[in-house]
Amino acid sequence: MAGRPVDGPPRSFRIDIGELVLDGFDSRVDPARVTAAFEAELTRLVRERGVPLAADGTGVALDGLAGLPPLPATTSAVRLGEALARAVHAGLAGRGDAR
């Protein structure tokens, strides 16, 4: 692959998340703020820790993840978005059950 170091992991990733559905949260939780916090935290985690499931450079597609860490009971959109990003990254690191 052009632009990829021969002895290192891929330098770019594409993570497509079609839809995140959060049920049971207070209506005061602002979806736009959850999304912004989620995107910022997931970007940070991928930059700092990579995506272990894709470390060998092959494409990986997951239809769903289960068995991830629970989300906090909170009305803070930022805290919820960050916790959700950490849970998704845990799934991309091989923790949880791929479906």
Explained architecture:
By secondary structure, the chain is mostly helical. It has two helices and two strands; from the N terminus they run αβαβ. Strands 1-2 form a two-stranded antiparallel ribbon. The longest helix has 19 residues, at 31-49. 15% of the residues are buried.
Draw up the topology in text.
Elements: H1 31-49, E1 65-66, H2 77-92, E2 97-98
Antiparallel strand pairs: 1-2
Q: In which order are the strands of the major sheet placed?
A: 1-2
**N-C termini distance:** 29 Å
Average pLDDT confidence is: 74
Uncertain runs? 1-6
H and E string: HEHE
Overview features:
mainly alpha, 99 residues, 2 helices, two-stranded antiparallel ribbon
Q: How is this structure best summarized?
A:
By secondary structure, this protein is mainly alpha-helical.
